[in-house]
């Protein structure tokens, strides 16, 4: 059985790690290089580094920061934010990223997923999907959750799988930063209807929430930010708790 992954997320704005609630009210959470190194040593399975203002401000992800982070970690490392071409991905992989995450650019140009998967391999390509419920439907949003689209979550998720994405990072905007738990009902639906790994994001507040997303949500990995950044949950303790609940993890 594949082990479940625990993934701290570093949301980067202006070179600092930040954290908000429902995608707004950002506060400083520390130096991304120091945090990344600490998580690597603490037993995190992977890291995700998202330059959250890159798409909004139409500039490229900070490749030099990626390089500095990559020099300090020995675990797989995904980078996202403002990626819209093969050249962007080339630079990030050369600077030490193991995978890239695309979001807004993939919705605007779905062929990008095919092109990146063909050039770098599906295992390198994560498609991030931010969605919130509107009139009972999960609707995909872009530009850090600011712009709604006409896309329904499940339809888009199936399309990105077909186009060659290696995994999906799904963030429930309704749950993000609330610490009320992950959106397990829709996560379970995604996991049942797709054949690629689903990373749960948005809502982690305590250890039980991680147990729930692996059991009820059938998630392959769980991503969180503030509970790790502000030391509310230690990764070592979390993994022990998961193992005690018969959830396979790498200790």
UniProtKB/TrEMBL annotation:
<comment type="subunit">
    <text>Heterodimer of HisH and HisF.</text>
</comment>
<comment type="function">
    <text>IGPS catalyzes the conversion of PRFAR and glutamine to IGP, AICAR and glutamate. The HisF subunit catalyzes the cyclization activity that produces IGP and AICAR from PRFAR using the ammonia provided by the HisH subunit.</text>
</comment>
<dbReference type="InterPro" id="IPR006062">
    <property type="entry name" value="His_biosynth"/>
</dbReference>
<keyword id="KW-0456">Lyase</keyword>
<protein>
    <recommendedName>
        <fullName>Imidazole glycerol phosphate synthase subunit HisF</fullName>
        <ecNumber>4.3.2.10</ecNumber>
    </recommendedName>
</protein>
<dbReference type="GO" id="GO:0000105">
    <property type="term" value="P:L-histidine biosynthetic process"/>
</dbReference>
<comment type="pathway">
    <text>Amino-acid biosynthesis; L-histidine biosynthesis; L-histidine from 5-phospho-alpha-D-ribose 1-diphosphate: step 5/9.</text>
</comment>
<dbReference type="InterPro" id="IPR050064">
    <property type="entry name" value="IGPS_HisA/HisF"/>
</dbReference>
<comment type="similarity">
    <text>Belongs to the HisA/HisF family.</text>
</comment>
<dbReference type="InterPro" id="IPR004651">
    <property type="entry name" value="HisF"/>
</dbReference>
<dbReference type="Pfam" id="PF00977">
    <property type="entry name" value="His_biosynth"/>
</dbReference>
<dbReference type="GO" id="GO:0000107">
    <property type="term" value="F:imidazoleglycerol-phosphate synthase activity"/>
</dbReference>
<dbReference type="InterPro" id="IPR011060">
    <property type="entry name" value="RibuloseP-bd_barrel"/>
</dbReference>
<dbReference type="GO" id="GO:0005737">
    <property type="term" value="C:cytoplasm"/>
</dbReference>
<dbReference type="InterPro" id="IPR013785">
    <property type="entry name" value="Aldolase_TIM"/>
</dbReference>
<keyword id="KW-0028">Amino-acid biosynthesis</keyword>
<dbReference type="GO" id="GO:0016829">
    <property type="term" value="F:lyase activity"/>
</dbReference>
<feature type="active site">
    <location>
        <position position="130"/>
    </location>
</feature>
<feature type="active site">
    <location>
        <position position="11"/>
    </location>
</feature>
<keyword id="KW-0963">Cytoplasm</keyword>
<keyword id="KW-0368">Histidine biosynthesis</keyword>
